[in-house]
Amino acid sequence: MEKVSWFRRRRLLVGSLVGCLMLGGGVLMALPGDEPAVRQAPAPAPGAQAGTAIRAGVPAALSDLAVLIDERESRVRAHPKDARSWAVLGTAYVEQGRRTAATALLYPRAEQALRTSLKVRPRGNAEALDGLAALSNARRDFPAALAWGEAARKLAPTRWTTYPQLIDAYTGLGDYKKARQALDRLMALHSGPAVRARAAGVYWDWGRREDAQAALADAAAGASAPAEQAAWLERAGQLSFERGEREDALRHFQEAVRLDPDQRAAQAGQGRALAALGRTSEALSAYRVALERQPLPGYALELGELYESLGLTQAAGVQYNLLRARVRQEAAGGVDGELVLGRFEADHGDPASAVLRLRAEWRRQPGIAVADALGWALHRAGEDREALRFAMIATDRVHGGAVRSAPYVYHRAMIERKLGQAGPARRHLQEALQINPYFSPLLAPVARAALARLGAEPAPAELPR
């Protein structure tokens, strides 16, 4: 009923602006003195709607995904040589696993279905190659994602759905120039909400925050279904929060959950924004709801740090244990959890172990997020000179760190402070708190205290007459 009412509201809104519209294959005409007469094609079935969404690379409602998966499972049982159905089924498993965090179960199923599709039709099967690239990106296996994506691109250079997978793979590998080239090619081939949302991510990586926000606003306005609109609103909320705009972020997250109650990332985002607003009880509740249905390690880390900031160390420990358990469970589905585990160990566990993990991660896929995490782990392990090199990679525009991230800049400032570089440390602490004064309930107060201890910038020495 929610979907029907959403589409009805959207159509009535459009109908109030013009007198005659084409809507989903139907015509709405208004004559003087008459009620509008609507003649339109029936709405697509849930499975068909989800199939269209995942083939276009946009989020689908979980209930529709479940219908699609049931349909495709029945189809391949009856027609095991249907390569296209195997590819659709595998891609649907990827999306369902991403949305539910049931990765240990669903990602192996996805891989089996996609490889079966390739086995049934080994030539000309770009759809299965795209699905394998999406699965590899979801597992944070960016070298494999790049290999599958490039194979799909060579097979079908004008197939636009390949290029979002290439953008994710290049970004994960730290190759921002090629990510931009892939975006340019994507925008030349296709337009629409999914493309604008993908462009927003690239703009944000370059530090073009206003362009990113505008692209996501356009994507949300042009979305064709509630689940898709909710996904773009959730991303817009993330960007607002990273800019320190707590109230705006909360509005985006709340609207996303209203449109799609299964949008767990938006529920975790509500927890983040509510904590920044000082509404702690509501924040804790929002995090618990998100973790109940999508128990991602990153959510557990955020909730644990919120508990720790409140002095609730036992409750924090419960979340940290959940994080470790979830990383192990996700590893069974092929997910690379080294980045989140390295971040956790650096601050709450064994920094030396974090360094080992993150060095290996850096050798394999040297993205900006890994550079920041490795630099911080080295600092926590007492290796500050090497730590500064990685912190500079993560924050220096010359090295690709164009994204304005308060945690990244904070990490660099604290490393500089430990090395006795008071001036740079002071400037970077000020910058971190200017980008987002609420970037962490645990670390933002540490940043303010460190800045206070450094004191004001010394006055320039008076030049001799």
Helices and strands, with pairings:
Layout lengths: L1 H14 L4 E4 L2 E4 L7 E3 L6 H10 L6 H17 L4 H18 L2 H18 L5 H13 L3 H14 L6 H11 L3 H14 L3 H13 L3 H14 L3 H17 L3 H14 L4 H13 L3 H14 L3 H13 L3 H19 L6 H11 L2 H14 L3 H13 L3 H12 L10 H13 L3 H14 L8 H11 L11
Antiparallel strand pairs: 1-2, 2-3
| Percent of sequence in beta strands | under 5%
Largest sheet, described in full? 3 strands, antiparallel
**Average predicted confidence as pLDDT:** 89
* Gyration radius, in Å: 24 Å
* Low-pLDDT ranges: 1-41
Task: Please report the total strand number as a whole number.
Answer: 3
Strand order of the largest sheet: 1-2-3
Gross geometry: globular
SSE pattern, N- to C-terminal? HEEEHHHHHHHHHHHHHHHHHHHHHHH
Q: At the third CATH level, what is the topology name of the domain at 191-293?
A: Serine Threonine Protein Phosphatase 5, Tetratricopeptide repeat
Instruction: Count the DSSP helices.
Output: 24
Helical percent range?
over 70%
CATH class of the domain at 191-293: Mainly Alpha
Report on the structure:
With 465 residues, this protein is mainly alpha-helical. It contains 24 helices and three strands. Among the domains are: 103 residues, Tetratricopeptide repeat domain (Serine Threonine Protein Phosphatase 5, Tetratricopeptide repeat, Alpha Horseshoe); 42 residues; 102 residues, Alpha Horseshoe (Serine Threonine Protein Phosphatase 5, Tetratricopeptide repeat), CATH 1.25.40. A three-stranded antiparallel β-sheet has the order 1-2-3, with helices on one face. Helix 6 packs parallel to helix 8, helix 18 runs parallel beside helix 20 and helix 19 runs antiparallel to helix 20. The N and C termini lie far apart (81 Å).
